[in-house]
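User: Can you predict the 3D structure for this chain?
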Amino acid sequence: MGSPSPLTPRRSFLGGIVAGAAALVAGRVSAAHGEVLASLEPPTVGDEFLTKIKGTYKQVFDCVEPNDGWGPTFALNFIDSTEGAKKVTDKDVTAVAVMRHFAMPLTLNDAVWAKYKLGEMINVKDPKTNAPATRNIFWNNLVMRPNVTYEQVLATKPIVMVACNLALTVLSDMAGKKVGVATEQAKKDWEAGLLKGVYLAPSGVYAVNRAQQAGCTYCYGG
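Assistant: Here is the predicted structure, written as structure tokens:
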């Protein structure tokens, strides 16, 4: 199957919102490409991420496309440059990276990328093969920070990564249909495949708004 045109998944995404929005959090047990993805509870969808927004200098990065992985790097650049310019430390700064629309899959592990052929879906090629990626090529190789993982950054820097539950619901349904996985199971797989430290908000636009209400300035993250 060839890569879809840029407009095809966007139209499908928008068309699927009405049908997918009603399906919220389900259970979280699945298997993907031989890798067992298991959890006792589904991820919490809500405002928990807001408790991590602290300090004087706060900015939210609105990421809507893969953008070659630049979104989280923009957030880290904000932290580093602010601390250097203002002579402050991590306790004074927070960057919130909201991964919504077609940026949302960047918050998923390799097993989900492989099973649901996400490289084809969001037009991301693996530089090692020059073919649609069957692994998350971004999570462990941040732009300007090679060999650093999202999990390491989330655990050590004042950055909050938020995934859009609406995108997760709609895109998992779209991807599941293409590979023959039922809607409910596909969503369970995607929930289970969220990278450690990623928060799940009702929608990305909701998360951007709530972050601004918590004092963040806005920056488009691509």
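The first strand starts at residue 29 and ends at 32. Residues 1-8, 17-40 have pLDDT under 50 and may be disordered.
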